[in-house]
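Page 47, continued from p. 46.
Same chain as before, 302 aa.
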Amino acid sequence: MPRKGPALDEVVPAVRRLLRRGLPVIPSSASTVLLDLRGVVARAVDPADVTSRATALDGTLRGLLARFPDDRYASAARALFGLPPAAPGQNLTVRRAAAAAEAGHEVHHFRKRVEPKLIEKVTWELLADADRFTRSPLIAPRLAPAPARQPVQPDPFAWEVTEHEEHLCRLWSAIYAARAELLTVERLISLHADRTDILRTAVTAAWRWASARAEAISYTTGFAPPQLEASVSELVAVAGWAPPLTEAQASRLTEAAAGAADREQFVAALHGETDLGNAWTGAFFTHSASRAMTHEQNGQQS
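Result:
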């Protein structure tokens, strides 16, 4: 059983303390309560090393701030913590002024009214991230350098263990490949890239996502340990947000990607299935439009 996570009132002071120096995080600026968050520990190369966990915390915060859920204050939150439009090494007074300017507020009002809410929001995001790692048994296996060749002994047990590791590596390789393409689509949409480029990348993301799903099915069917209480959908969800599909649509994509099909084979296998293509690619633009509308509404309310 995972231990109970820290409460909001424990983490807020720790985030406030971290804010004094800003990013990048160093061990002396990070409280233990932050370094012990499950999402931070899981990302650390060496969880027992405080410097490694500080590096993981820095990366976690950068990722959360890059995807800050409140578009109205996203740029201000980043500046407050020392990310562009602010610069590393600037003191809190300078960063606060930059953040207030980004938010369109006078500095005193920003410090009293807005900054505490941004700190609380960052705290909530850190706790939500930790909760996702706490609830999920799905953490990619860490790899270490091999100092020498590691031959497999000619023994049925050794073959079974090695085959299991092979499939586990293929699974996580496919999941990370899918995540990379899904992130690329979101980045291109954010950049207002040419629609043709976005669509091409979305198709690549569909291929990678379907390949990951095929690997997840293969792994859970033949190699998943009994204690892994995760479905195929939960495994693939680790790659990130993907367009919502019906079970039949997801199965059709998976079928087209099965057998290590390359992108061209995947596209050829789905030739003429316009409705399925629109369900996948169209969802990215719908999702983006919804976010833009929310941003506009927030701007009108402020």
